[in-house]
Write a structure and sequence with these properties.
Strand order of the largest sheet: 6-7-5-8-9-10-11
Strand content: 5-15%
Number of helices: 24
Largest sheet: 7 strands, parallel
Radius of gyration: 32 Å
Shape: elongated
Helix content: 40-55%
Number of strands: 13
């Protein structure tokens, strides 16, 4: 008697037509073609919105999930109902269930990425409910072996997570496979906080349970029909069907970005699972097949991307350097290679008719060896430890600076005001934080106090946040982002341009060179402070301008003791302010620096670290509350950064900080942002604040750059205040080189340099921030606005919200200051 074809079912006679299996193949290809691009496209939309400074579209992922359910689930439903072949119907049922599960998981992505613990908890609960429902549905199907249950012959089921007190060799082999898939993650990734890691483990276990319910014993039994059984058919055909089902499961397993590596690594494990089940059928009495191998292999494979990668760091903003996106891609590629090797190896070793499954002892030794290897890799080349987010607790009471006494003009008056502001801020923080600090210390939440904004940064997740939010002295609680470490430095951007032979075009355009040559003013006697990625203090254009002393450099990220730059952005921006050799507006001014960005990302707490240091510098290792020296504060601050919601800021979090700096007589310039040409895009602190001079960018023809953010600011205030050259600006880069960059980041330090020239020309103006801002506006020259639709009617409420007062004019401003 000839063997039936692989799509035939002994319980479904006359089902040998090839058309059902052709339909199944087409539906499987269609499912892959829909799911992969939908997931990648959704992530890209998120990234584009982030890059343009727009809010996430809350309905994006729910709609994408519903669309996938309809496009994949509809043909899968037809497969589950129409063909007479039991195998094809089983295939349709599994893919239909996978599509519905994907749709339910996708709804969870409405949770903001900054709340990763809440997302993982929701995923764990949703996946557990899905596994329960799928298991109940399987038990109701007549003639089908449920997951972990007995076959129609009546054999008793295996019970327990491991398939019994003494796990079967195939279960141990599945655990070994899952641990092998984890190896790249322990080497190249890093864990979040304790709660985040525990929730990731629970979510991964629940995803494994869903896979076990989808690919249950009844599913595998459909592909093992025939006499004698043909394991190769089970591996090839069953593995393909299982791979598509696992692709659907992987597509929903993680926040936007975290699911992408799972799309590569999970589907090939379907072949390994098929080989394991082929081996299990040979060993199990009366054909009993446990779901434990599926649960373990899929659960461990899912744990890697869920636990060892922060989805907020899988971003296009970090592409271009060897940062998290690069290492996640490397890890996903390594995981794909491991998954393919597992599929091929298990298929060859276990799926042959007369293959001998390794003994339980051998399999257990393999698992133990892999566990040791995981620990060794994590403690050796890996990044051991927990790197969860922190919380910024903003207190209700903020210092009252409304009745400061009038100050004398010039530096003496500025220093007196700075001392008084510092005293009031510290007194308010000490008094109002005392009780809360004691409680936080008792709970081992590692509190760190701030005074510039009356706030405390602490460890904690959603539970701590809820508890803190309910305390009467607390105004609100924000997430303070913490970057996970990389397996190797991300790399520093170095310039390839030649050194300038004279003043750069942007210096000439605003007339700074005329200030040097005709007015004899270069910024001598003024100090500019920069908060950015750092500064290459050895660059020939910057080294002579460093103020020096033990209170001119602060690095809250890495604790460096001398000016260094981890990225390149900070060296470039400071060079445009005070660099020598034709790149800086005020080459005679001195500078001090602080690191508030690491790998182009920051957090509310580290932004505060640097702003506090600028108000009252302190020696390395000193206490900002007691060792601050407000008389050593820089005169002007240049800030080419913004704090968006993805970093944890809300609109008002830094408002008390800039108000205090303004009250102390410290001039603050801030970049408008690069999220134009949309109106209302000046919205990331500190750019929208009224006590900050906000700077947009123009090109060499005085046209506002399309990327330059526009007003009005939240609340309706006109922003930016002025514009400056920000397209094709050449300045210093780490390593002694030079580079050309675009952005409002490049425009802002030039305005800070102009203020340095003004205050150098007239020291009596130092500390008179309001008068200085007005002089800059009054002496600005017209700039040409640009519009999103190239239509003047799209003027964002008026050209003042595009060009501000116009292009800053250094020569006119210095003459007016004199």
């Amino acid at each position: 008697m000839p063997l039936p074809p692989p799509w035939a079912d002994a319980r479904a006679p006359n089902s040998s037509s090839p058309w059902p299996v052709v339909g199944a193949v087409l539906v499987g290809c269609w499912s892959v073609a829909v799911t992969g691009p939908t997931q990648i496209g959704g992530w890209l939309v998120d990234q584009v919105l982030l890059g343009f400074g727009r809010d996430r579209v809350g309905w994006l992922w729910p709609v994408a999930g519903l669309l996938t359910v309809l496009l994949v689930g509809t043909p899968a439903l037809l497969l589950a109902l129409l063909p007479r072949s039991g195998v094809v119907r089983a295939t349709g049922r599994v893919w239909l269930a996978g599509a519905v599960v994907l749709g339910s998981f996708t709804l969870l992505r409405a949770v903001p990425p900054v709340h990763q613990e809440a997302y993982l908890a929701g995923l764990a609960v949703t996946a557990a409910l899905a596994a329960l429902v799928l298991g109940r549905l399987a038990r109701r199907r007549p003639g089908v072996v449920p997951a972990g249950g007995a076959d129609p012959g009546g054999a008793a089921p295996r019970r327990g997570l491991l398939g019994g007190l003494r796990p079967a060799p195939v279960t141990l082999l599945a655990i070994a496979g899952g641990l092998t898939l984890l190896l790249p993650w322990t080497w190249l990734g890093a864990l979040g906080g304790l709660l985040e890691t525990v929730l990731a483990a629970l979510a991964a276990a629940a995803l494994g349970a869903v896979a076990g319910a989808l690919l249950d014993a009844g599913f595998w039994s459909r592909f093992a029909v025939g006499e004698p059984p043909r394991p190769a058919r089970l591996v090839l055909v069953g593995g393909l069907v299982a791979g598509v089902a696992l692709l659907l499961l992987a597509a929903g397993a993680g926040q936007s970005g975290a699911q992408l590596p799972a799309l590569l690594t999970l589907p090939p494990t379907g072949f390994a699972l098929a080989a394991l089940h082929a081996a299990a059928r040979r060993r199990a009495p009366a054909g009993v097949v446990s779901a434990a191998p599926t649960r373990w292999l899929v659960g461990l494979a899912a744990f890697g991307p869920l636990a060892f990668a922060d989805p907020e760091e899988i971003t296009l903003l970090l592409v271009g350097t060897r940062d998290v996106p690069y290492w996640v891609a490397v890890t996903a590629g390594a995981g794909l290679a491991v998954a393919l090797l597992l599929a091929a190896g298990y298929g060859v070793l276990l799926a042959r008719r007369r293959a001998r499954t390794p003994s339980r002892r051998t399999a257990a030794i393999t698992v133990a060896a892999l566990l040791v290897a995981l620990v060794a890799v994590d403690l050796g080349p890996g990044q051991p430890g927990l790197y969860g987010e922190r919380l910024l607790v903003v207190l209700r009471q903020q210092a009252d600076l409304s009745d400061l006494p009038a100050a004398a003009p010039g530096r003496a008056g500025r220093d007196a005001r700075a001392r008084e502001v510092y005293r009031r801020l510290v007194d308010t923080a000490d008094r109002s934080q005392a009780g809360l600090r004691r409680e936080l210390t008792r709970l081992h939440l590692r509190p760190k106090s701030y005074y510039l904004v009356n706030a405390i940064e602490v460890d904690g997740g959603p539970v701590a946040r809820a508890w803190l939010s309910g305390r009467p002295e607390v105004g609100r609680v924000l997430v303070s982002q913490r970057l996970r470490p990389l397996p190797a430095p991300a790399g520093i951007t170095r310039g390839t341009d030649p050194a300038p032979s004279g003043p750069e075009w942007n210096i000439r355009r605003i007339g700074a060179d005329r200030v040097w040559t005709q007015l004899g003013v270069t910024g001598v006697g003024v100090v500019v402070g920069t908060s950015d990625s750092g500064v290459d203090g050895r660059h020939p254009a910057l080294t002579e301008g460093f103020r020096g002393g033990d209170d001119s450099w602060f690095d809250p990220w890495d604790g460096t003791r001398s000016p260094t730059d981890s990225g390149g952005h900070g060296t470039h921006t400071l060079g445009s302010a005070v660099g020598r050799g034709g790149i800086g507006v005020a080459p005679g001014a001195q500078w001090v620096g602080c690191v508030n960005l690491a790998r182009n990302l920051g957090s509310p707490a580290h932004y505060l670290d640097c702003l506090q240091f600028m108000l009252a510098p302190f020696p390395a290792g000193g206490d900002p509350f007691t060792a601050g020296r407000p008389e050593r504060a820089p005169d002007i601050l240049t800030n080419s950064w913004g704090c968006p919601g993805i970093e944890g800021c809300d609109l008002g979090v830094l408002r008390p900080a800039t108000a205090a700096l303004d009250a102390a007589g410290i001039f603050v310039a801030a970049a408008a942002g690069n999220t134009g040409p949309w109106c209302g895009s000046v919205d990331d602190p500190p750019a929208p604040y009224p006590d900050v001079l906000t700077v947009g960018a123009v090109d060499d023809r005085d046209r506002v750059a399309e990327f330059s953010s526009r007003g009005p600011a939240p609340g309706g205030a006109a922003k930016p205040d002025v514009v400056a050259p920000g397209v094709g600006v050449r300045s210093a880069m780490p390593g002694g080189g030079y580079g050309t960059l675009d952005g409002t980041s490049m425009a802002t330090p030039q305005v800070a340099g102009v203020v340095a020239l003004m205050w150098s020309a007239n020291p009596a103006l130092i500390g008179d921030v309001a008068r200085t801002r007005q002089l800059l506006r009054d002496t600005a020259t017209p700039a040409q606005p640009t519009y999103r639709s190239r239509n003047p009617s799209d003027a964002c409420g008026g050209d003042a919200n595009i060009t501000g007062a116009g292009l800053v004019d250094a020569y006119a401003a210095v003459r007016a200051a004199r």
